[in-house]
Design a protein that fits this description.
This protein has one domain. It has a three-stranded antiparallel β-sheet with strand order 1-3-2. The protein is α+β, with helices and mostly antiparallel strands. It has four helices and three strands, in the order H-E-H-H-E-E-H.
């Protein structure tokens, strides 16, 4: 069975709130799993700001959306 990674939409990312955990941010931006995400975070090899609080890695959702070239405002779909 093929390993399929999730393709995130801008609305799905916005729905996660104002901050993401580091693993989720890496999954969205780079399409990597948990182990690789922690390696990237530990080495500081990510292209977005990361806030480390104790054992948690936090990333502003707006930074991930900006990196992906998506406006951080909610779209008005009619």
């Amino acid at each position: 069975m093929a390993n399929r990674q999730k393709i995130w939409t801008a609305d799905e990312v916005r729905a996660l709130g104002v901050r993401l955990d580091g693993v989720t941010a890496c999954e969205i931006v780079y399409g990597v799993g948990r182990t690789t995400a922690y390696d990237l975070l530990r080495r500081g090899e990510v292209d977005f700001p990361v806030i480390r609080r104790s054992r948690k890695w936090m990333v502003p959702t707006s930074a991930v959306l900006a990196l992906l070239g998506v406006d951080d405002q909610v779209s008005d779909a009619a």
